[in-house]
Write a structure and sequence with these properties.
137 residues, alpha+beta, 2 helices
């Protein structure tokens, strides 16, 4: 029997924004402050499982989260990833990257190059900024 999908049945997520189609959550990873996931609410695995209007809505959210993270955190780079190999539920990673983070310039899943610098994130400010930028479905 397959294990339940952790994105369909979330446990203790920090939801920053949501509508009936998707939600934006803050990933609890102090090594990568501001790391967000944009998660499609329905259990589908691929972008092509969505209708064209749904795809546009989802990508608008990804780009909106990127915009907010760039404005509020001023990272050196933003990484976008949609893998789903371990959790085949459509979601995008939006990851602010800093030149002094533990794995920069490699992917966050690479071996650490250095200890990295700890940064805080103002969760309330992120929520407020996302409310101003993201569209409602």
């Amino acid at each position: 029997m397959n294990a339940p999908c952790p994105l369909c049945q979330p446990d203790r997520e920090t939801v920053l924004w949501q509508d009936r189609l998707a939600r934006v959550v803050l990933v609890d990873d102090p090594a990568y402050p501001g790391f967000c996931r944009v998660i499609w609410q329905a259990h589908v695995a691929e972008m092509t499982d969505l209708a064209p209007a749904q795809r546009r809505h989802l990508m608008g959210l990804v780009w909106g989260v990127e915009t907010v993270l760039r404005q509020t955190l001023q990272p050196a780079k933003i990484n976008l990833a949609s893998l789903g190999n371990q959790v085949p539920h459509l979601h995008w990673h939006v990851i602010p990257r800093f030149a002094d983070d533990a794995t920069f310039p490699d992917a966050i899943w690479a071996a650490r190059r250095r200890p990295g610098v700890t940064r805080g994130v103002d969760v309330a400010a992120l929520r407020e900024a996302l409310q101003m930028v993201l569209p409602a479905a």
